[in-house]
Amino acid sequence: MQYNQLFQNKRLQAVLDQLPISVFVADHEGFVVWNNHISAEGIGLSQAEMAGKHVSDLEKQGILNPSVTRLALEQKKQITRVQVINEHLKQLMVAKPIYNEDGQIELIISISQQFEHIGQDDESIDEINDLIQTYILELHRFYMQAPSRESNKRAVTKSKAAKSLEQKVTRISSLPSTVLLTGETGVGKNYTARTIHDYSQRRSNSFLTLNCSTIPESLLESELFGYVKGAFSGANSTGKTGLVQMAEGGTLFLDEIAELPYAMQAKLLELVQDKTFLPIGSTEKRRADIRIIAATNQNLETLVHHKQFRSDLYYRLNVFQIEVPTLKERLEDLPLLAYQFVQKFNEEYHQQKKLSREAIETLTHYSWPGNIRELQHAIERVCVFAENDTISPEDFKKELQFTDPEQSLAFEKHESETLSQFLERIEKNVILQAADEHRNSREAAKSLGMSQPTFSRRVRKYET
Ligand SMILES: Nc1ncnc2c1ncn2[C@@H]1O[C@H](COP(=O)(O)OP(=O)(O)OP(=O)(O)O)[C@@H](O)[C@H]1O
């Protein structure tokens, strides 16, 4: 059976066994398919003893009390319960039915996490619930990708922009077509390319990346197409297999495609167009069974217009273009992404940081020019530097350059101002800010590279 096979996947089991949460999976009749270490520990039976048991029997024996899996099966909907374990500990349990293409329940995934409660604990419940929903989403996604399944249903993220991205990725993944991913830096173009590969029939073969901006032009051709033995003096005597050949049956991801030198663009054209290539020193063209995904944060059309990018290559790459949304355009996903990153760094750094609701609120007011990458880095830094386990808005304010709207307006020229008036207003701002930020005029003058008497004179002028 598909789901039994899926949860016998050793890699998936190893990942789930390392999670600090309890994962319990039952089939559509309520028989245990698999549970992770934490779940087995909590129940007091080994994973082998649990396999194949029915949840009602475990309930009768008082081992599950109540069984959220049974409730989800009976009520055919997601069940969420908070259970009191003792005076200090509670447990949030979520059981989610997973439906097959025919609308029948195929699995129930139950995830639970214990938490300490001191007085009001609504905040921790929300946070844990969000985290649990993320895990369920990821498991669902993994389940949908099981090699034996032919399904186009995918888990989706919260925001409209992310849902639309997920839909496009799902649709495109089953097609052999070349894809062009565009979007600002850090939005997740690499991540999206990988997702397309993982969703596709090619997922058991390689996903290889060539970053067109970092590889020297002289090596590009041999990296991509390889060379035959004796192709040129100094060449490896056995020849070299290029990325195109290594990606056979899989996906070749050409990152930062706009950086590809003009001369190389012609060579790539043939590969993109006919899926053929010529290893250096060879006279025989080879055929490649690869899917090409290219990405750029530049406007290729403008580059074509300025003759910096070949129009024929642009049209070949631009069969399907997907614009990956900025983080600003998918702000609704920010809390979930933030919790995921905190969880990731907690595991990496063996700590127990958590985000306060106010901290999340603060993050939604930031402009995120570096998108998801910037969010990930900011969270990593606060996970390392925050003094308390609960991350506060102040922790982020230290890490991110929040621009004060009044401050940024101060640097815009008013229509009615002359240039000298505008420059004087900027100078006033800079001088008074330096006076505020430093303990004395000597330090403030030094920070602006001016003498102390000049600085003090300007302060007197602008303070009046
Ligand atoms: N949907 C997502 N969920 C979780 N992490 C993500 C997601 N999208 C991107 N990331 C993470 O954000 C970081 C930046 O993503 P990625 O490298 O894919 O961006 P990019 O658009 O290719 O950036 P660049 O244009 O600079 O190459 C990576 O660490 C990636 O794992």
Brief digest:
It comes from Geomicrobium sediminis. Helices cover about 45% and strands about 15% of the residues.
Which features would summarize this protein structure in a list?
16% strand; DNA-binding; Beta-Lactamase; 16 strands; aromatic hydrocarbons catabolism; binds adenosine-5'-triphosphate; Sigma_54_int_dom_CS; Helicase, Ruva Protein, domain 3; transcription regulation; 464 residues; transcription; Rossmann fold; alpha/beta
Give the N-terminus to C-terminus distance in angstroms.
82 Å
What is the general shape? Answer: flat
The count of domains is 4
Which blocks of ≥5 consecutive residues have pLDDT under 50? 147-156
Q: Percent range for helical residues?
A: 40-55%
CATH domain class name of the largest domain: Alpha Beta
- Describe the largest sheet: 5 strands, antiparallel
Q: What's the pLDDT, averaged over the residues?
A: 83
Strand content: 15-25%
Helix/strand structural class: alpha/beta
Number of helices: 22
Ligands: adenosine-5'-triphosphate
Task: Write down the CATH topology of the largest domain.
Answer: Rossmann fold
Region (Disordered): 439-464
Protein name: HTH-type transcriptional regulatory protein TyrR
Keywords: Aromatic hydrocarbons catabolism, ATP-binding, DNA-binding, Nucleotide-binding, Transcription, Transcription regulation
Domain PAS: 8-53
